[in-house]
Amino acid sequence: MHAKAVRRSLAATLVSVLAAGALVLGTGGAEADVLGSMEVSPATGTDTSGITLTTAAPCPEPATNLIVAVKGSGFPAEGQIVVSNSPISTYSTAPNGGIVVPLTQTMRDYASTAGFTTLQGRYDFTLTCRAAFGSATYGDFAAPIWFTSNTAYQSTTPTTATTTTLAASPASPVVEGTAVKLTATVAPAAAGGTVRFLDGTTQLGTPVAVTGGTATLTTSALAVGTHALKAEFTPSDPAAYGASVSAPLSYTVKIKPPAVVTAAKVTGTVRVGSTVTCSVSFSGASSVSYAWLRDGTVLSGATGRTRTLASADYPHRIACRATATNSTGSATSTSPAVTVALGPALKNGTKPSIAGTHRVGYRQTARTGTWTPAATSYSYVWKRDGRAISGATRSTYVPTRADRGHNLTVTVTAKRAGYANGTATSVSVRIG
Q1: Which class would CATH give 163-254?
Q2: Which of 79, 226, 284, 387 has a CB 3.0–4.6 Å from the CB of 69, allowing a cystine?
């Protein structure tokens, strides 16, 4: 009889203990307060590492026992018990008074018990301070870990990788001075922080805050040449998001095309024989070419900045056209047309003279002298004592009796197209 009574007493006690443990996972008890955190040791490990949890403080009185559960992907929604209802006194005490609880199995073991094979994402350990029996609890300590792969975990929040891409508008190439809008896109869009825009290693402007996954900067300061533009993202919470930098964006800035500063104009004395200049100025020109026009038609071979007006230009209208070029483009300016005036009178160098025997009945021949520019034709007037002799208009003259004892001269008129006529009179000879 005594042995049977003892067995009945032990069975009743075991049923009470199991019932008390089951109540932890039930809904009968009041919601527990959060007492603090727990340290996970080691801070990084594998699915087969032994894990020890250390609470930040002791359990409050009148708690005498503890229970530990884990929740996360693969485990039941209510969590899986990894330390059953156990007396606190069975565990050692940390210097801060916290409870040191080594888990008896690994995360791989717990996953196998729950019936899954892939550990991924966040898992939360909860240590509940409680009484030995009943449903009363006195607060929780919590600690998360993250499996960054099926086999590796860490006790700190994993950093989310970011990507940064860079775009520029308008598209390359552009001319210097163009306002270029740089747009950096950071993914994921929830990542907060700033973006530095770089031209090679030189920062453009100041860092720009990321809003809704983008940051923009507009600059007109890009110099002529090819640039390697980048966007460098710095997270405001480096524990949550990683930094990232865009691939270099090749961007070309070209020199401005030439521009007319002073419009073309024909300067100088606009008459035959004079040299005129195409006066014009450009900005940004690497070279300037010229053309001359007569009555709107381009003159072949007339490509200098200056031009000496020829007989054929009189009395036409001439203009000049200047074209400036550089590696980007060109600009052209055409002057107003101006009318070419008659050139100056031909200038006599050596005076005309009379050749022959200066006597009545002997032929007298006019020598024209020299002229600048050279004459192309001449006319003559023979004079007796300074008065024109009627009908004596050829290059030769035969004196008559009326000329005996008088002075004979010849006035030569030199002619050339486009120039005023030049005249000169010979030295007189006395006719005997």
Answers
A1: mainly beta
A2: 79
State how far the Cα of 140 lies from the Cα of 144, in Å rounded to an integer.
13
In CATH terms, the fold of domain 2-154 is: Immunoglobulin-like (2.60.40)
- 3-class state of residue 259 by DSSP: strand
- Asked if 344 and 271 touch (Cβ cutoff 8 Å), the reply is yes
Please report, in tens digits, the pLDDT of each residue of the chain (432 residues total): 333 332 333 233 333 333 333 333 333 333 458 999 999 999 999 999 999 999 999 999 999 999 999 999 999 999 999 999 999 999 999 999 999 999 999 999 999 999 999 999 999 999 999 999 999 999 999 999 999 999 999 999 899 999 999 999 999 999 999 999 999 999 999 999 999 999 999 999 999 999 999 999 999 999 999 999 999 999 999 988 999 999 999 999 999 999 999 999 999 999 999 999 999 999 999 999 999 999 999 999 999 999 999 999 999 999 999 999 999 999 999 999 999 999 999 999 999 999 999 999 999 999 999 999 999 999 999 999 999 999 999 999 999 999 999 999 999 999 999 999 999 999 999 999
Closest CA to 145 of 24, 33, 31, 47: 47
Cα–Cα distance between 69 and 124 in angstroms, integer?
8
- The CA distance from 324 to 282, in Å, is 7
Return the CATH class of domain 259-339.
mainly beta
259-339 matches 347-430 in fold: yes
Domain locations in the chain as residue ranges: 2-154, 163-254, 259-339, 347-430
